[in-house]
Design goal:
By secondary structure, this protein is α/β, with parallel strands linked by helices. It is built from nine helices and seven strands; from the N terminus they run E-H-E-H-E-H-E-H-E-H-E-H-E-H-H-H.
């Protein structure tokens, strides 16, 4: 399993969870929390990149869904998110780790497009996964063309999520993973409940059905993709 730090304040708690040898940690500053982080937050994260519990940088990214916090205007807040995203990429490149990216918009795909533009500057040295992917196949193709990955969560089981399912059907094996995004977005038939890692099987079953492959086949290639991206085998050695 993967646990993700989102602030400096919960970094140690996530590393403690990753004391369990079946758990690994990503370390980063969530875009919704950049106003709470010091300017040198990524510099402070750098002290932990060699920790064997750490498997990637993130969760980082751009969030244009939530309004700017009190005392910030939208332009300044988005600019800070973008600067932090670049700093996360630079940290990942130096540490030879990959990056977990969050994007979210109230409408349209502005955060995705801005994050993709930043990723384009770093894609030769860092791979990124756009987690909890909700976009159309055209957006997915843009990520894949840079060597990046998608990750699908419980939304893929929702009845109205036609766009996500169409993207998942077309996505080549080896270019996507499956996630929970726990404690959020529990899949059917658990929608509305607190999500947990065991529920990922329901998402996998639905995606296997959509793609016309067995659950075993889907589990094999998505598991290998996750192992490679997070370098889990190296951490277990």
């Amino acid at each position: 399993m993967i646990t993700l730090a989102t602030r400096l304040e919960n970094l140690q708690a996530n590393l403690a969870i990753a004391e369990n040898p079946t758990v690994h940690a990503c370390i980063g500053i969530h875009p919704c929390d950049v106003h709470l982080a010091p300017d040198d937050a990524c510099g402070q994260l750098a002290a932990f990149v060699d920790d064997p519990r750490v498997c990637a940088i993130g969760e980082t990214g751009l969030d244009y869904y939530h309004p700017a916090p009190e005392g910030w205007d939208e332009e300044a807040f988005r600019d800070r998110q973008q600067r932090f995203l670049r700093q996360h990429f630079e940290l990942a490149a130096a540490a030879k780790l990959n990056v977990v990216i969050h994007t979210r918009d109230r409408e349209g795909f502005a955060s995705f497009e801005d994050a993709l533009a930043i990723y384009r500057d770093y894609h030769r040295s860092v791979r990124a996964v756009f987690h909890c992917f909700l976009g159309p196949w055209e957006n997915a193709e843009s990520i894949i063309s840079l060597g990046g990955l998608l990750s699908f969560g419980g939304v893929a089981t929702f009845k109205a999520a036609h766009q996500v399912r169409e993207t998942a059907k077309q996505c080549p094996a080896g270019r996507f993973m499956i996630e929970t995004d726990a404690p959020y977005l529990a899949p059917e038939p658990f929608r509305g409940q607190c999500n947990e890692p065991s529920f990922v099987r329901k998402t996998a079953e639905r995606l296997a059905e959509l793609r016309g492959e067995t659950l075993e086949s889907l589990a094999l290639h998505t598991g290998k993709t996750a192992d490679d991206f997070f370098r889990l085998r190296l951490n277990f050695d």
